[in-house]
Design brief:
The complex is a heterodimer. By secondary structure, chain A is mainly α. Chain A contains 45 helices and eight strands. In chain A, the strands form two sheets. In chain A, strands 2-3-4-1-5 form a five-stranded parallel β-sheet, sandwiched between helices. Chain A is elongated. By secondary structure, chain B is an alpha+beta fold. Helix content of chain B is 29%, strand content 29%. Chain B contains two helices and four strands. The chains are: A mainly alpha, B alpha+beta. Chain A binds chain B through residues 599, 602-603, 606, 629-630, 633-637, 771, and chain B through 2, 4, 60-62, 65-66, 76-80.
Chain lengths: 874, 90
């Protein structure tokens, strides 16, 4: 094919440039998208012809099968690559090894390699993982990876978006092919001696549509692509139609032997179709010129005829002594033929194979279709299919589907009296319920699982059930509960020698204990991590890294946290374990915020937020960190983040997520000068606190209540720096923050001190870039101040001639403004009783017998001034 | 993309000569900005060139700051802005 492509020169140039970069050793990835018929394949064919001499070209295709063959395109290309790949695919089960060897094989050549994977909107899950793997690593090999897809076939939920969103932007180029212009259509029309106007209007410049119309002899312009294709085949003989109809039910290409088996003497009819330009010849096969043409023909067939044809193809494939068809094809035809027996014969195996290769979405679908016909199977077998479906649905986040299948399996196992399987199903239902946010059900199932399994001899399942309970407790931050059940799981798992459960249980117990800084907890988590790394339990390792890293951040053990988060994030990046990686990245962002690396914190938080459809649990910490950086810098865009994260956090109902949001919102209000809002936000968070609440979170909220003048009684167990702060010892508080390594909090503490300390505070804020905080503090100081800012010991009020505390001064000012006690209470957001208490104290200190006298005294002493407001610090 | 007003202070006074060197400086600023998807629209300068008010389009305040870092430009403050003019209320 050497027809000149119109209006594609720029794209060809782009591709040529990228090929050059690849030739220099820096591989690139190109995503070519466009509507169906826009000419993606044509562009690639043209590109291959132009550069075939200076590069190796390999082509893999994704097919529109009922469920695509797992890693289909990889198999295609492996066939074309000589050497180890084919062997490897037959013997190797480890996907990481397969992917790496594939990448190496592509890159192993003196001339650059172009690897093309077409139509990835039909890709199976394993292929999508492959694309992510390759896309992220292609920069290290002399390979140009070209990926094509139809952007009009993928809705917003399509898993392809996860891949596209995750490819590194520096090494990935996106080319979107536009329709032909009016001029181009006119040029094509002239070449076929037709007029262009109507043609452009109807086809909207779609190249395939245009060429179909021009190829037919019809005078007018058909309304749709389908009509155009059907017009082109209108003159084909009935035998030719038979060939086309049969070929239309076979995706991608139809083998010649298949046509010859099913149809009587089809050779001349096949020729006819090729001559008419509808089919094109391939190696021992024919294919429609374009998928759209195949679809058009397929659409003319009534449902019963389709089923008939699929059945005929299936029969021929099964009877064929020669090359076995892939299971994916057999299932495809069996499913579309409605042949239950055939589906049951092939789908379960296909499902298992797909699962093994990591194509979990496909596995779920295959189990699903097998279940549709599974009534005829014995119950136990049906239950096994249900469990297969449940597990695959769980892995692909189809949680309702998983729960449904698991519940159905449960009823069967109960009927059959299979105790251990009943126990296992119950444990799964517990876990699924938790994910579906039904905590009550999660508890119920968990308890029932344990009860059922305890009635049987000790088993792995029982250990898992104990561990499941431990996990539920851990997630509620119930340390003793987590430890209790975790230890039981551990004991049993140790006696059974089951490393995986040991790792899981150690993690649950350890994480719960570590929350309180218990070094035993730390050691258990370390042990869990060690087992997981040694035995290759990837998810367990990721969970251990996460709990160690996040736990250490919460305890403000920054050096330790850094180590685990850095190692954990690399570990996950190498294995494409994205959810864990992003969750840890959110924690690392928070660490950076707290140690004062705000640029690093913002960048990492932004990276997490850029992830496609990341779960709320992962988004929340990143949103809070980014909001904090912005509001302290005085940069725009913090309020929308704070509003969004508040909604997300409230929905989880978990204090550990809600309290930091409240603290950030309180700080935002204070920086705005909105004292009332600051108190309201802090109080809202404070009210959710319980005995299990993280003491640092609590301390932070207490800080804002203290700062705005209305702190409750100081709770027990607050961290040291906060205790110093609230008892007025700003010096010790600042020193404590320095020891921990939090410069911002250190500066806030210094800001309460003498002039020298305040200058240091401003210098620190300057260094951190905390412009908003700096300005706010300077505003207060500009208005003059009263030493100290607490209700603590006398020293903090010594510099004040009347010895009034801050709160008392405020009350005095409002009295001077003529407000009654009730009004003062409302303004300061305290109770009237509190106001009365303050008023008495003020009168006493000013040696006054009435409010009016108190106000006059205050004027005389210079505590308040008549003009311009008070000399005060809030 | 949001539009931002960036205030900068140049204690020594900003000097961009109107010659090839100056043109090269501007080009490198534009190219560094492009790496962060940031576009410099134009700037207002005070008389002694110690303060500038720069209009930028960019994806986020952090991108503005990163671009400024690449170009060695100071950032006093960033404000998100929209246009408001007398004809707005026709």
């Amino acid at each position: 094919m050497s027809a000149h492509l119109l209006e594609r020169d720029l794209f060809l140039e782009n591709l040529a440039g990228l090929l050059e970069e690849a030739a220099r050793g820096t591989g690139r990835c190109v995503l070519i998208s466009g509507e169906a018929g826009i000419g993606k394949s044509a562009l690639i064919e043209c590109f291959s012809e132009l550069h075939g001499g200076s590069a190796r070209f390999y082509l893999g295709r994704c097919e529109a099968l009922f469920t695509p063959r797992p890693l289909g395109p990889l198999h295609d290309i492996a066939q074309q690559l000589h050497g180890r790949m084919r062997e490897l695919l037959e013997h190797e089960a480890d996907r990481a090894a397969i992917f790496s060897t594939f990448l190496d094989a592509l890159g192993d050549s003196p001339i650059p390699t172009v690897a093309i994977i077409e139509d990835v909107h039909w890709a199976d899950e394993a292929t999508l993982d492959l694309l992510k793997f390759l896309g992220r690593r292609v920069q290290h090999v002399p390979v140009l990876l070209i990926i094509t897809y139809r952007d009009d076939e993928i809705g917003p939920d399509h898993p392809l978006w996860f891949v596209l969103g995750d490819l590194p932007s520096r090494t990935t180029r996106r080319l979107h092919l536009p329709p032909l212009s009016r001029d181009a259509v006119a040029a094509l029309a002239r070449g076929a001696h037709r007029t262009g106007n109507d043609l452009y209007k109807v086809t909207a410049g779609n190249p395939f549509f245009v060429t179909e119309v021009l190829a037919s002899d019809e005078e007018g312009v058909p309304e749709t692509i389908r009509d155009a294709v059907l017009a082109r085949i209108a003159r084909i003989s009935p035998q030719g139609h038979d060939v086309l109809e049969l070929a239309s039910v076979v995706p991608a290409r139809t083998d010649l032997w298949l046509l010859k088996t099913i149809l009587p003497e089809p050779s001349s009819a096949i020729e006819e179709c090729i001559r008419a330009g509808i089919l094109r010849p391939e190696l021992d096969a024919v294919a429609f010129r374009h998928e759209l043409a195949r679809q058009a023909v397929e659409s003319t067939l009534p449902p019963f005829r389709l089923r008939e044809l699929h059945a005929e193809v299936l029969r021929a494939l099964l009877d064929n002594g020669g090359e076995p068809a892939t299971v994916a094809r057999l299932v495809h035809h069996a499913a579309l033929a409605g042949d239950g027996a055939a589906v049951l014969r092939f789908a379960p195996d296909a499902a298992r194979q797909a699962a093994q290769q990591g194509a979990h979405r496909e596995a779920a679908i295959l189990y699903g279709i097998a279940l549709r016909y599974a009534e005829v199977l014995p119950q136990a077998q049906r239950a096994e299919l249900l469990e297969g479906r449940a597990y695959e649905c769980y892995l692909t986040s189809q949680l309702e589907g998983a729960a449904e299948a698991r519940a159905a399996a449960l009823s069967i196992w109960r009927e059959l009296g299979e105790g251990d399987k009943v126990g296992r199903s119950l444990r799964w239902l517990s876990r699924l319920s938790w994910f579906l946010a039904d905590k009550a059900a999660a508890e119920r199932y968990a308890a029932e699982a344990v009860a059922t399994l305890e009635a049987l001899p000790p088993s792995r399942e029982l250990a898992m059930a104990y561990s499941n309970l431990a996990q539920l407790r851990m997630l509620e931050e119930n340390v003793s509960g987590a430890a209790h059940w975790g230890m039981r799981a551990l004991d049993l798992a140790e006696s059974l020698g089951d490393d995986e459960i040991i790792a899981h249980a150690l993690n649950n117990v350890g994480a719960a204990q570590f929350t309180y800084g218990d070094e035993d907890g730390y050691r258990r988590l370390e042990a869990s991590l060690h087992i997981a790394l040694e035995r290759g339990f990837e998810e367990h390792a990721a969970r251990a890294f996460t709990n160690l890293g996040s736990g250490a951040v919460k305890l403000r053990q920054y050096a330790r946290a850094s180590r685990y988060l850095d190692d954990g994030i690399s570990y996950c990046a190498e294995r494409d374990l994205d959810s864990w990686r992003l969750y840890m990245a959110g924690w690392r962002a928070r660490l950076r915020l707290e140690v004062g690396d705000w640029a690093g914190a913002a960048d990492e938080a932004a990276e997490v937020l850029a992830g496609y459809r990341v779960s709320p649990v992962i988004r929340i910490p990143a949103l809070v960190v980014l909001a904090w950086v912005r509001l302290r810098r005085g940069d725009p865009g913090s309020q929308p983040l704070l509003d969004e994260v508040r909604e997300l956090a409230l929905k989880t109902g978990e204090p550990q997520r809600i309290l930091p949001v409240a603290a950030a919102r309180a700080e935002a209000a204070w920086l705005r000068g909105d004292r009332a809002a600051c108190q309201a936000e802090a109080r809202a968070g404070y009210e959710l606190a319980s005995t299990d609440t993280d003491s640092w979170d609590l301390g932070q909220l207490h800080y804002w209540l203290w700062k705005t003048g209305d702190p409750p009684d100081m709770p027990l167990g607050l961290p040291e720096p906060y205790i110093f702060q609230f008892t007025g010892d700003w010096r010790a508080a600042a020193a404590a923050w320095v020891r921990i390594g939090c410069p911002y909090e250190q500066a806030l503490a210094l800001a309460e001190g003498d002039a020298k300390a305040r200058r240091s505070a401003l210098a620190i804020f300057d260094r951190l870039g905390a412009r908003a905080t700096s300005e706010r503090l300077q505003q207060q100081q500009g208005a003059g101040h009263v030493h100290g800012n607490s209700r603590g010991p006398r020293p903090s009020t010594r510099g004040n001639p009347a010895g009034l505390t801050n709160q008392q001064l405020e009350v005095l000012l409002l009295m001077a403004g003529g407000l009654h006690n009730a009004e003062i209470a409302a303004t300061l957001h305290v109770s009237p009783k509190t106001v009365e208490h303050h008023v008495s104290a003020v009168l006493a200190k000013l040696n006054a017998r009435s409010r009016a006298q108190a106000v006059t005294q205050a004027h005389n002493m210079g505590v308040i001034s008549k003009i311009g407001g008070p000399r005060r610090q809030i | 993309m949001p539009r931002y007003l960036v205030e900068r202070t140049f204690t020594e006074g900003l000097q961009i000569p109107v010659n090839d060197t100056g043109a090269a400086v501007c080009r490198s600023v534009v190219s560094n900005n492009a790496e962060e998807l940031v576009t410099w629209v134009h700037s207002y300068v005070n008389e002694d060139k110690t303060k500038t008010f720069c209009i930028y389009d960019g994806p986020s305040p952090e991108a503005i700051r990163r671009a400024a870092g690449r170009n060695n430009l100071p950032v006093d403050s960033i404000t998100e802005v929209r246009v408001l003019d007398p004809y707005f209320y026709k």
